[in-house]
Amino acid sequence: MAAAPSSGEVSSAPAKAGPERIRDADRTRAEILDTAAREFAEKGFDGARVDEIAAKTRTTKRMIYYYFTNKDQLFVEVLERAYTVIRSLEQNLDVDHLDPAEAIRQLAGLTFDHHESHPDFVRLVSIENIHRAEHIARSTALSNLANPALDVLTRILARGREAGQFRDDVDALDVHMAISAFCVFRTANRYTFNAIFGRDMLDPALREHHRRMVADLLVSYLTTR
């Protein structure tokens, strides 16, 4: 629910009533969040300016504060939406009918594809780590996304152990960490890696090799006794 304008401020909210007003509000919020995500990803939390976000949207700084209260809350909601996208993709991945090893490959591939096509997500996560997760810590929505992130993996690992394929000394969070480490590093460290080693990790010629590599690493580890 949007916070009320601060005392002395005149709300810039549309005066329309009913469903049309709700649709307009949803569109305005979405546009603000889209623009804010790009600004935060490009300039960091400290470098991004609400004035600039307002200038790049069809709204005003006052309207942004009407919907999001302040810059901190705007960043929280940008993070919430970014994390919700990947969590939703993971939950909707239909792998319960697959062999456990193939299911792991599918999940790793999904994360690989998402992080490659959403570099702003990786940058936002990196920025939030610079701020020691102070924004995520105040978000109920993000804390509630922990279990969905692990549900699919937990089921896959359980089936793999029951079938005698997977080792039993690893949990879902271990595997989630391993997938994230590879996929985040590939995008977040693209420029420093290229400057030091002369290899662009996002070179299209390497894409399928790296996508298969992360899956092979995971399956090899899980099936080693």
Percent helix, as a range, is: 55-70%
* Strand composition percent: under 5%
Q: Gyration radius, to the nearest Å? A: 21 Å
- Given helix and strand content, the structural type is mainly alpha
- Terminal CA distance reads 51 Å
Q: What's the pLDDT, averaged over the residues?
A: 91
Largest sheet: none
- State the assembly state of the protein chains: single chain
Which sequence of SSEs, written as H and E, runs from N to C? Answer: HHHHHHHHHHH
Number of distinct beta strands: 0
Apparent shape: globular
Task: Explain what this protein looks like in three dimensions.
70% of the residues lie in helices and 0% in strands. It contains eleven helices and no strands. It has helices at 18-47, 50-55, 61-68, 71-91, 100-117, 119-130, 140-143, 146-162, 172-188, 190-197, 207-222. The chain is globular, with a radius of gyration of 21 Å. Mean pLDDT is 91; it is low at 1-12.
